[in-house]
Design a protein that fits this description.
The complex is a heterodimer of chains A (about 160) and B (about 525).
Chain A lengths: L9 H11 L6 H12 L7 H8 L3 H10 L11 E6 L2 H4 L3 H12 L5 E2 L5 E6 L11 E3 L2 E3 L4 H13 L2
Parallel strand pairs in A: 1-3
Antiparallel strand pairs in A: 1-4, 2-3, 4-5
Helix pairs in contact in A: 1-2, 3-4
Chain B lengths: L2 E4 L4 H5 L2 H15 L3 E4 L13 E5 L2 E5 L7 H6 L11 E4 L4 H4 L17 H6 L4 H7 L3 H11 L11 H10 L6 E6 L8 H8 L1 H15 L3 E6 L4 H16 L15 E6 L9 H8 L23 E5 H5 L1 H7 L1 H4 L3 E2 L2 E2 L1 E8 L5 E6 L4 H8 L9 E6 L6 E3 L9 H6 L8 E6 L4 H15 L5 H4 L1 H14 L3 H18 L3 H5 L1 H10 L10 H4 L1
Helix pairs in contact in B: 6-10, 6-14, 7-8, 7-10, 9-10, 9-11, 18-20, 18-23, 20-21, 21-23
Classes of the chains: A alpha+beta (about 160), B alpha/beta (about 525).
The complex binds flavin mononucleotide, iron/sulfur cluster and FE2/S2 (inorganic) cluster.
Chain lengths: ~160, ~525
């Protein structure tokens, strides 16, 4: 086992695998279950899934890496996703993205130095009549300006 | 008397503050001792008016919007519970021209009912299609859908009845209904609005599909970007199960249909039906070769109907009012209605359900009111990231599958993304290639590698490095992608790129129309 990886609760993960492994095509629900519960899919959990589902580790690893949504490192305290797709671009999403990169001091798939915010890109949140759109910890926001973005970041930084 | 007050639970409305307004109204009503019943409905789809609050009055529902939490006390002062005058009073909701001009069939209940209430659904003609279907033979159900002329609303416009007939005819111990709720196209949100605003109509449509082809299990493959839809769907499925509309013995008929929501994980290509099936099986979303067709060997190798949300949600009204009635709407081979979606830089953005055949211009100006920034509209991308950019000179084209196709454009899932004259079309073309590179499943070289090369060629063009040669290169690259790709991601990514180049050569630093310059 890789000792540089942060500790995660093995029993929680085993519990999730056990509860879902009987489902047809169980791997995706299990991966979601793990990430919903502990924020990411620890690489060390791959053998547990492989064994329970009778798959090779390579198959499990291959599935995890295919999807943009799954992450294999712990996220910051908050997940901030900015829509980069066309309708949001038509309303200035690229300027919002540049502003976010500059003020947060990180690029996409990175976490701010204080551990508060992980910045992610998404391609459409289904809020294209209220662009630019942003999602924060699963909560959708619309017509986001640089000012409302700064306010939001301030709130997130002050929250645990 | 208890007064019904409606505030959407639709996520776009919530993104503009609907939850806060709902709390403020509940608080203010309690403080004033007013007895109200707060219903969290779907959105009517007029997003510039959201959060839009409606109250029922003897004359009909009166709308107020856009309401901010700070407006709430004032609304109570103005007697809004009885339709009182206030500057946010929009009159009777159904008289608002944007809404009144529509032909709502699939969206008949969205914004009207409580999305997860079976009783409300029944009170508004819900489950009449299923009641009819339960009295019909599977072949007759398929025939009714064929008669309606319904074609797949996911983009490819394949006749739904023919797909169902193939699955009905397949012999197997297990068949599946899979709903494609991946809605990855930018500028589209009609699937989301149905799932959040009237999930029971999708459940009813899937149940009818199950009866029609002999499938007892259904999956809704829902993109992970739609958490609010997941909640609404699961609440509605639980309600349907509790009342016997789903389960082992549907309404005592002896027929079985079970339904489960499965979440995607942020991959555009998983909207492609075979990639979606791989994903449902727990694998990487690699596109499969066809044949075999999913209709014969689909999920877990079994015969499977894969249909878009809107296709399935249009089935109940077809079974209720008859296929002949549905096909009276529309033009040419595009029958029925389509929920069009106005998005991007548009003043009145939202959902417009109308019969096929209205023009792009009518949608953009009569409904949409022009750009939100007030500047001239320069280009509209129709049909998602694989759809062409349409210039002003083509705005009189009718919205119809064949007519757009003849003009190298496509209707797809019916989303229109509007850009004003500040748009840089070379950058949009570059993004088209970049998006293809990010989302490629990696199976074919033209798509996986070609898209990255495409980004580089456009960059060189914009920098002015030997432009005529780059134009030739870009066109050759697009040809290779068009002919050498397994699925439409690589096969259609050239459409937005070429349309940008052909209609807006000046943005690429080319003086003349690009084909001449080359
Ligand atoms: C790259 C790609 C993405 C697609 N995305 C979607 C989607 O998000 N939703 C959808 O319904 N169909 C999508 N499709 C079309 C599906 O492959 C398929 O045609 C559709 O689900 C069939 O259902 P329908 O006949 O009811 O439209 C996509 C196709 C491709 C090639
Ligand atoms: S065209 Fe692209 S997305 Fe489609 S199968 Fe080929 S590599 Fe995969
Ligand atoms: S394009 Fe940004 S929400 Fe759809």
């Amino acid at each position: 086992m890789n000792s540089t990886q942060p500790a995660w609760d093995r029993d929680t993960v085993l519990g999730i695998i056990d509860a879902l492994k009987h489902k047809p095509g169980a791997l995706m629900p299990i991966l979601h279950g793990i990430q919903d519960s502990i924020g990411y899919v620890p690489p060390d959990s791959v053998p547990l899934m492989a064994e329970a589902l009778n798959l090779s580790r390579a198959e499990v690893h291959g599935t995890i890496t295919f999807y943009h949504h799954f992450r294999t490192t712990p996220p910051g305290r908050h997940k901030l996703e900015i829509c980069r797709a066309e309708a949001c671009q038509a309303m200035g999403a690229n300027r919002l993205v540049a502003h976010a990169r500059k003020t947060l001091g990180v690029d996409f798939h990175e976490t701010t130095a204080d551990g508060a915010i992980s910045l992610e890109a998404v391609y459409c949140l289904g809020n294209c009549a209220c662009s630019p759109a942003v999602m924060v910890d699963g909560e959708l926001l619309g017509s986001v300006s640089q000012e409302s973005f700064d306010e939001l970041v301030g709130t997130l930084r002050s929250q645990p | 008397m208890t007064i019904k007050v409606y505030i959407p639970r639709d996520s776009a409305s919530i993104s503009l503050g609907a939850d806060k307004v709902a709390r403020a109204i509940a608080f203010e009503a309690a403080r004033r001792g007013a007895t109200i019943e707060l219903v969290r409905n779907g959105s009517r789809g007029m997003f510039w008016l959201e959060p839009m609050v409606e109250v029922s009055t003897p004359e009909g529902r009166v709308a107020y919007g856009p309401v901010k939490p700070d407006d709430v006390a004032e609304l109570f002062e103005a007697d809004f519970l009885y339709g009182g005058q206030h500057h946010l009073n929009l009159g009777l909701t159904e008289d608002i021209p944007y809404f009144a001009k529509q032909q709502r069939l699939t969206f008949a209940r969205v914004g009207i009912t409580d999305p997860v209430s079976i009783d409300d659904y029944l009170a508004h003609d819900g489950y009449r299609g299923l009641a009819n279907a339960l009295k019909m033979t599977p072949a007759d159900i398929v025939e009714e859908v064929t008669t309606s002329g319904l074609r797949g609303r996911g983009g490819a416009a394949f006749p739904t009845g023919i797909k169902w007939r193939t699955v009905l005819g397949a012999q197997a111990d297990q068949k599946y209904i899979v709903c494609n709720a991946d809605e990855g196209d930018s500028g589209t949100f009609s699937d989301r609005m149905i799932m959040e605003g009237d999930p029971l109509v999708l459940i009813e449509g899937m149940t009818i599909a199950g009866l029609a082809v002999g499938a007892t299990m259904g999956y809704i493959y829902l993109r992970s970007e739609y958490p609010y839809a997941e909640v609404a769907l699961n609440e509605a499925i639980a309600a349907a199960n509790a009342r016997g509309y789903l389960g082992d013995d549907i309404l005592g008929s002896g027929k079985t249909f079970h339904l489960e929501v499965r979440r995607g994980a942020g991959a555009y290509v998983c909207g492609e039906e075979t990639s979606l099936l791989e994903s449902l099986e727990g694998k990487r979303g690699m596109v499969r070769f066809k044949p075999p067709l999913p209709a014969l060997e689909g999920l877990f190798g079994k015969p499977t109907v894969v249909n878009n949300v809107i296709s399935l949600a249009s089935v109940p009204i077809i079974l209720d009012q008859g296929g002949a009635n549905y096909q009276e709407y529309g033009v040419g081979r595009s029958r029925g209605t389509l929920p069009f979606q106005l998005a991007g830089n548009i003043k009145y953005g939202g959902l417009v359900e109308a019969a096929f055949g209205l023009s792009i211009r009518e949608l953009l100006y009569d409904f949409g009111g022009g750009s939100r920034t007030g500047r001239p509209i320069r280009a509209v991308q129709i049909g998602g990231p694989l759809g062409a950019y349409v210039p002003e000179s083509q705005f009189d084209l009718p919205l119809d599958y064949e007519e757009l196709g003849k003009n190298d454009a496509m209707l797809g899932h019916g989303g229109l993304v509007v850009f004003d004259d500040t748009v840089d079309m070379a950058q949009m073309a570059r993004f088209g290639m970049e998006f293809c590179a990010i989302e490629s499943c990696g199976k074919c070289t033209p798509c996986r590698i070609g898209s990255t090369r495409g980004v580089e060629v456009i960059d060189r063009m914009v920098e002015g490095k030997d432009r005529p040669k780059q134009v030739i290169l870009l066109r050759e690259l697009c040809d290779t992608m068009l002919s050498g790709s397994l699925c439409a991601l690589g096969g259609m990514a050239p459409f937005p790129v070429l349309s940008a180049l052909n209609h807006f050569p000046e943005d690429f630093g080319l003086a003349e129309p690009a084909d001449k310059a080359a």
